[in-house]
């Protein structure tokens, strides 16, 4: 009963106004039911690490598959959880480890920050969300430090570093793409939008976006969702990225059932941009095994593998 409550509480963005005490209480309940012993660090290939950055203890999970690869260096995929999520939660929701087993890349799942270190974690994506935005936590700097630490500890290919995220994690993925464009080859935001006005791309970064038209938390067409926060339209984020990457303004459009795929070509530096619109899709990590018309994890990896950094 409690675990079901925690999963519901930790997945969605929630308004803090008038509800902070309730959220903190819920956080403590969830914390007591998800002790470090329950983190999947005992599973084969998964390790939990601590990184001290900007005076804070930050934690992350790393999955290194046993599968040998022909290349000496491996791709790295960093996955960011939603507001109220955790590294463990998004690891399970994305099913990224199974794909890492098949393809041989390294997967990392960092935790955001929260009040009193409860599991109600968030990322400072600019205008959103929660503790991280309110305290102006330097999450872009943390993610850069994380990339450097992983590159020292594992055989990471510096031209094949990718990032994906859901909801607030998607917004942070956009921000990381903006601020760490010299290090990240491609990003994959799911159910989020560009939430910072200070985006500068020093290098081209490929972009693949997944968003449902029935998303009530981050509305596809922009506006105020259920949590009384204004988000710009998804199309604005894609257009901004296409322009900064120097892509052709007109996309090649393909419709497959409930999925509309828009591919932008001709981008600078070998980059690319693509938008997958899921008609009737909600606020979720899309997965065919859960009844969705596409699997975001599979499609983003296919995209990532075709778009390393070329300079």
Distance between the termini: 51 Å
Mind telling me the CATH superfamily name? Alpha/Beta hydrolase fold, catalytic domain
CATH class bucket: Alpha Beta
Q: For the largest beta sheet, what order do the strands appear in spatially?
A: 1-2-4-3-5-6-7-12-11-10
How many separate helices?
A: 9
Number of E-type strands = 12
Q: Radius of gyration from the CA trace?
A: 18 Å
Structural class by SSE content: alpha/beta
Tell me about the largest β-sheet: 10 strands, mixed
| Number of separate domains | 1
- The shape is globular
The amount of beta strand, in percent, is: 15-25%
Summarize the structure.
30% of the residues lie in helices and 23% in strands.
Care to describe what's here?
The protein is an alpha/beta fold and 311 residues long. It has one domain (2-306): Alpha/Beta hydrolase fold, catalytic domain (Rossmann fold, 3-Layer(aba) Sandwich). It has 9 helices and 12 strands. It has helices at 2-11, 20-33, 87-94, 96-103, 130-134, 139-153, 168-179, 234-244, 296-306, and strands at residues 46-53, 56-63, 74-80, 106-110, 156-166, 186-190, 206-212, 223-224, 230-231, 252-256, 259-264, 273-278. It has a 10-stranded mixed β-sheet, with helices on both faces. It has a two-stranded antiparallel sheet with strand order 8-9. Helix 1 crosses helix 2 (20-33) and helix 6 crosses helix 7 (168-179). Residues 1-43 have low confidence and may be disordered.
């Amino acid at each position: 009963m409690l675990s079901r409550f925690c999963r519901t509480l930790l997945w969605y963005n929630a308004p803090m106004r008038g509800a902070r005490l309730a959220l903190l209480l819920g956080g403590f309940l969830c914390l007591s039911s998800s002790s470090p012993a329950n983190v999947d660090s005992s599973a084969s290939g998964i390790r939990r690490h601590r990184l001290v950055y900007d005076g804070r203890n930050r934690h992350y999970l790393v999955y290194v598959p046993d599968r040998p690869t022909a290349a000496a260096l491996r791709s790295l995929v960093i996955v960011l959880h939603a507001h109220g999520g955790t590294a463990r939660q998004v690891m399970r929701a994305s099913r990224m480890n199974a794909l890492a087993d098949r393809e041989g890349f390294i997967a990392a799942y960092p935790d955001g920050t929260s009040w009193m270190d409860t599991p109600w974690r968030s990322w400072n994506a600019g205008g959103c969300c929660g503790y991280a935005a309110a305290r102006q936590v330097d999450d872009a700097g943390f993610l850069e430090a994380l990339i450097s630490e992983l590159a020292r500890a594992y055989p990471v290919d510096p031209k094949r570093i990718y990032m994906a995220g859901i909801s607030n994690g998607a917004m942070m993925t956009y921000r990381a793409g903006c601020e760490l464009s010299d290090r990240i080859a491609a990003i994959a935001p799911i159910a989020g939008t560009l939430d910072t006005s200070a985006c500068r791309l020093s290098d081209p970064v490929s972009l693949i976006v997944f968003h449902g038209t029935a998303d009530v938390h981050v509305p596809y067409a922009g506006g105020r969702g259920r949590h009384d926060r204004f988000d710009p339209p998804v199309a604005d984020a894609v257009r901004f990225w296409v322009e900064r990457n120097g892509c052709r303004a007109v996309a090649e459009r393909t419709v497959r059932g409930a999925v509309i795929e828009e591919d932008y070509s001709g981008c600078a530096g070998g980059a690319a941009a693509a938008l997958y619109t899921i008609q009737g899709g909600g606020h979720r990590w899309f997965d065919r095994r859960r009844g969705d018309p596409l699997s975001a994890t599979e499609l983003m990896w296919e995209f990532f593998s075709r778009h390393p950094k070329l300079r």
